[in-house]
Write a structure and sequence with these properties.
By secondary structure, this protein is of the alpha+beta class. It contains 3 helices and 4 strands. It has one domain.
Length: about 110
């Protein structure tokens, strides 16, 4: 399932639900089918994501018998978080009516 984040000040971000759930969980938001960030929440949410992504460590490679050139790259939390952090920070500068909403087919 996909989650669409839409900002009043920037473009859209599409994200798989499992990644969105991890990021919203780091912020303390519920993963409902529809949700919002108010202008007052954005700076704190961006800071929380930055902190969570600095604490996250890449997962160790499970199968060390796989040759290095065939191992799958590890995508860390910071790489997944960066587009949402950018959206939060840029939208926070948009004024009192700035907002971000997300929408998915169902709660995730």
């Amino acid at each position: 399932m996909l989650v669409t984040f839409t900002s009043s000040e920037t473009g859209e971000i599409l994200m798989f639900a499992d990644a969105a759930k991890e990021l919203l969980g780091a912020i303390g938001k519920e993963t409902t089918a529809k949700g919002t960030f108010t202008q007052a929440e954005m700076a704190g949410a961006a800071a929380a994501l930055r902190q969570a992504s600095q604490l996250a460590e890449p997962a160790p490679e499970e199968d060390l018998d796989v040759p290095e050139e065939r191992r799958q790259p590890v995508v860390v939390l910071g790489q997944r978080a960066w587009p949402l952090i950018d959206m939060l920070e840029r939208t926070a500068k948009g004024g009192p009516k700035a907002n971000i909403v997300w929408q998915a087919a169902a709660a995730f």
